[in-house]
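Protocol step 4 of 6: record predicted structures for both targets in the notebook before any analysis. Target 1:
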Amino acid sequence: MKTFFISLVFLFSVSVLGCKSSTDNLPWKENLDEALKTAQLGNKTVLVNFTGSDWCIWCKRLNEEVFSKDEFAKYAEKNLVLVKIDFPRDKEQSQETKFYNQQLAAQYKIEGYPTIVLLRKDGSNLGVTGYMEGGAANYVQHLQSFK
């Protein structure tokens, strides 16, 4: 019985840890001004992910198929500063965060989720995209086409 219980605890731990998305390991910022400063220092592009992380099906698919993959993480580490502007339905956010996110959505005329805005290090618009089929390799190639 003791062995069964230990095995059960082990399997539960593995399943919980295994479910953790590697997007949690990506260095997402929540402030665009800070991201632009970082981009200038590192000579990188800023990827702004306007998302409804806990309800938007296409946002979840983008996370699962692209942002959670090592290929994207490696590309992002060398080339991107990542910003997540989230509009969740069930996650708590401060009023300040909600207001900030709404201002950015209005500024960039966001009409749906996910919307990915790419900015040069000086803040000028490089392009806008969203979810694409084909996985991380295809998405990285797509992002590279904006340069």
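Target 2:
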Amino acid sequence: MRPQQTICRAVSISGTGYWSGRPVTVDFLPAPAGAGIAFVRAGSDVPVRIPATVDHRVEATARTNLASAGVQVQMVEHAMSALAGLGIDCCLVRVDAEEMPGLDGSSQAFVDAIDAAGSESLGAAVEPLVVEEACRVGDDDAWVEVSPPRFAGLSVEYELDYGPGPIGRQTLSVHVTPEAYRTELASARTFISQDDAARLRDAGLAVTVGYGDLLVFGADGPVGNSLRWPDECVRHKVLDLVGDLALVGRPLHAHVRARRSGHRLNGAMAARLVAGQGRRASA
């Protein structure tokens, strides 16, 4: 058990949305105990507050989006991952466009901003979601499974398997503490195949994204870029998983095993965990 935490002061990040190509500024603001994480779409007459919970998640391709009152904030997973990884429980994230900035495809810039702001205790105790029974979503090929925690907090085992090719099969096991998050996960970048990148461009999406903005894999490895770790791809999958599971709305104490999961399955597990807590509370 620990007290809830927020950031000490406001801090801003600016960049460009991957999908839209539009400029965007994000402000991380301190929030009081019990506020949780929420996004606020600014730039309109009436700013819309969108709680960062699975109830506000909407299905999307290759990213995690949140919506309320017909207003969306897209690609929130990297910011959510940074906040959860560093143990920030209460924060207001104000964004002046529909899509969060892609930056370098990792959560490193968000981590740097949060660290620059500093964190402070809010006094009130955090109330984690502690998994008591194992459960699984998915099928034999791709799945996410949670079981009771092996350590204090969250631990993850992930298996990525892209078959023959430059990515191949990669595995990672990590106990997600703030220190481990900073050193093992934060700078792992989004990756995509060269063919998929071409299809997005043909559809008029991601037209401003270049080879230096994320990892684009050709037949022989990253094109116009280099890896930060030999297993950077699986590290990014764990980064995404941490962000998606943070939509349970409070710290998750569990051991998570996953194979070939993505945002859809990660979101399904977050929903399953929240629903399970609701049934337990009403029993």
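Step 5 preliminary note on target 2. The longest strand covers residues 23-30. Residues 3-127 form a domain with the Ribosomal Protein S5; domain 2 fold (CATH 3.30.230.20).
Proceed to step 6 after PI sign-off.
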